[in-house]
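Dear Dr. H.,

I hope your travels went smoothly. While you were away I took the liberty of generating a structure for the chain from your last submission, since the lab meeting agenda had it listed for discussion. I wanted you to have the full record in hand beforehand rather than looking at slides cold. The sequence, exactly as received, is reproduced here:
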Amino acid sequence: MKSHFYHLLQIDFFGSYKLAILSFITAFIFTLIAIPPIISLIKKFRLYDVPNDRKEHSSPIPTMGGIAVIAGMMMGLFMWFPFSANTAQLTFFFSMAVLFALGIMDDLKDLSAKYKFIIQTALAILIATSGIRITSFDGLFGIDELPLSAQYTFTFLAIVGITNAFNLIDGIDGLAGGLGFMSLVTLGLFLSMSGDTNTALIAFALAGGILAFLYFNFNPARIFMGDTGSLVLGFVVAVLCIRLMQVNAVAADPVLPHASIFVLGIVLIPVFDTIRVFAVRIWKGRSPFVADRTHIHHLLTNQGFSHGFAAKIICFVHGFVLFEVYWLRDMQQEVLLFILIALMIAVTFLLKNLGSVIKIKQEQASAALKQKNITSL
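The corresponding predicted structure, in token form, is as follows:
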């Protein structure tokens, strides 16, 4: 198959990102073509995401768009990725396939959280056993190399936590896809600069599929990615974050002074929001797993803001965090961590009260205009 595309590899202007660009474009085109027939098929079998009290859409919408995204990603990798019998690579793709199947089953039958958690735990342990682990905190709080038990523990927390954080933030049109696309492109670029161009292809291929999906998912959405897409998206982002930490730690000339805080910035919004929502539910004496309307996107839509506006604002904040965490990369890690947490607290407070702020500003402007008219008389 790859020999048919050999002539494309001779294009010099692609430079060192030749395969990354080809993987991205291939996944984008395949996903773009695949989604319309998937929408028709889902409508035929009436596999809709039906609205309820906690969901934002008001009419049934086709779901499982993640099928097209993952299919596009795999097509991009099939054509350009150097597959091998490497244990870590085989484990990663096997785990992704299991999560993909789990997502389809969840979209069809609404599986229990306990069942999904057990599967995710097993896969996280499998990934850690294959060698993809958080081995060091890179000096954060004075912690460098971690003992083996801590490596497995933090790897498990990262993979399961980030996977579910992306799943939970997939609540309005374009949000999970927008955040995921920005995170994947960032991971792909820094993995490439760190010398791990093969792993970077995974990031770029999935980013291409996500970008094509967003064309159909921006408000008003014609299809949702469902758990089929969001579980795999979160899992891939989590594993690539860990991989970036690993390659940065062993690089002779590391691209990042401290990768641990940088990768936290890549997943900051979904992770912080999940921790905040769970903490508030527990504080109020409720189960952290009982769904409500307190996620970061709900803070805006509850005030009457549209899906499109909410998704754009949150993605803008994500872009700002990515810029900030790189711009301040030489700062002491503990200080930068404090800045990121303080930023998210401030953003949460602002978004929760944005409607009131706008209303006050409008009233002030109206009062000023009336005063001006009175004065002119």
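Two observations you may find useful: Strands lie at 48-49, 61-62, 136-140, 143-145. The chain has a mean pLDDT of 90.

With kind regards,
E. W.
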